[in-house]
Amino acid sequence: MAVIPDIAPTTRTDLLHDLRDSVDGLADELVARIVSAEQDYADASLLTPEQLRSACRDNLASMLANLDGTAPVRLESARAAGRMKAEQGVSLAALLHAFRLGGRLIWEELTARSDGHASQWLLDMAAQVWALVDVYSDAAADAYREAADTRAREDAEASRRLVRTLFANHALNPAGVADAVRAFRIPERGAFLVVSVGDSASCPSADVLRSGLRGVGIESVWDTEVDGRIGLLWASSESALESALEAALGEIGAGPVGVSRGFGRPGGIGEAVEQARQSRRCALDGAGVATRYDSVPVPLLVIRQPDAGQLAARQVLGPLLALPADEQHNLLTTLEAWFAARGSTTAAAAKLHYHRNTVLYRLRRIQDLTGRDFSDPVHAAELYVGLCAHRLLGAGRE
């Protein structure tokens, strides 16, 4: 059997130099193969054909220079390709496939230009080509991951800035607010609410809240505050928003929840944020219970005028607040239940699990201490204001 002679050294050198001289044509061919084989490259709207060709040419030229012995392994082009593909949204798998396609192209060209002689030199060159492809692929992959991590951090930080802008004073940064509205795809018209959620061990993360609300037809954006979370919620209609919100309240957690008035355009966000925060300050703890801004006029008045509220609590409840803690707690809890029951001693007793006579006794005790007659509407109103101020502000506590 005849042995095919090895390619002469000068022929090897000429062959590799000829490949290097053809690098522009090879780059064009490689671009065509990559785009045909990888949909990621065809779909990447940010990656231009010129950028792809430049990356292909640079890496082919670098690899061929190493193969012909005129240059050491230089991985700058591979790293640059990895960074660019991460920034342009091309997947890592597609990037690595492109390097394999480049290695295959080099090998096919070497085989074709050696007239098909399966010489030992050509077999050795195959090993060098694929080893070099591995080295370049690894460098590109490392640069890709670093760039992807950096981009993720930057995107997360940019998202946080947009969220903060959305819930901040809109008059201070109208352009930033417009950017945030576009970024979160908030419609120009719709049914909107802002919800303020008090912090508690059971309060879900912003991602969980957003996912849960989306499951009942509500889109949302959430921000974390020192004492809880604030969220913008929207849906196609007021009825859809209200019904979905009611269904989702139980998932929000055990802390107090305040809800703003509804509004129809993103321009109402700033005012609604303050309304939701104030409503939450008027709320009592309890899962699935929300305090609506329009439903608590007296508590809102108290928290907006805290000095006057504290004064009212001292003037109305003064002697009661001087009692020992246990007795004070019992009387105030009974007073609160009586107001919640709309003046029904029977309903208040049922709520507290007391005998009705116990409730009557405690109400008479409150009347004796404060000098306020429950049958007098003015006196009853004063007791309600004093109770609200004490509950919300801690007024009169020693």
Key terms for this structure?
Arc Repressor Mutant, subunit A; Alpha-Beta Plaits; disordered N terminus; 5-stranded mixed beta sheet; single chain; Globin-like; 398 residues
Task: Look up the CATH topology of the largest domain.
Answer: Globin-like
Task: Note the run of SSEs as H and E.
Answer: HHHHHHHHEHEEHEHEHHHHHH
Question: DSSP helix count?
Answer: 17
- Based on helices, strands and strand pairing, what is the structural class? alpha+beta
The protein's oligomeric status is: single chain
- Principal-axis shape equals rod-shaped
On the 0-100 scale, what is the average pLDDT? 85
User: Would you count the extended β strands for me?
Assistant: 5
Q: In what range is the share of β-strand residues?
A: 5-15%
Radius of gyration: 36 Å
Largest sheet: 5 strands, mixed
Give unreliable regions as ranges: 1-9
CATH class of the largest domain: Mainly Alpha
Helix fraction by DSSP (H/I, runs of at least 4): 55-70%
Strand numbers in spatial order across the main sheet: 2-3-1-4-5
Protein name: PucR family transcriptional regulator
Organism: Rhodococcus daqingensis
Domain RsbT co-antagonist protein RsbRD N-terminal: 24-158
InterPro entries: CdaR-like_regulators, PucR_C-HTH_dom, PucR_C-HTH_sf, RsbRD_N_dom
Structural overview:
This protein has 398 residues and is of the alpha+beta class. It has 17 helices and five strands.
The gist of it:
The protein has helices at residues 9-21, 23-37, 39-43, 49-67, 76-87, 92-113, 120-167, 174-183, 206-215, 238-252, 269-281, 297-304, 306-321, 325-340, 345-352, 356-370, 377-393; strands at 191-198, 219-225, 228-235, 257-259, 291-292. It is of the alpha+beta class and 398 residues long.
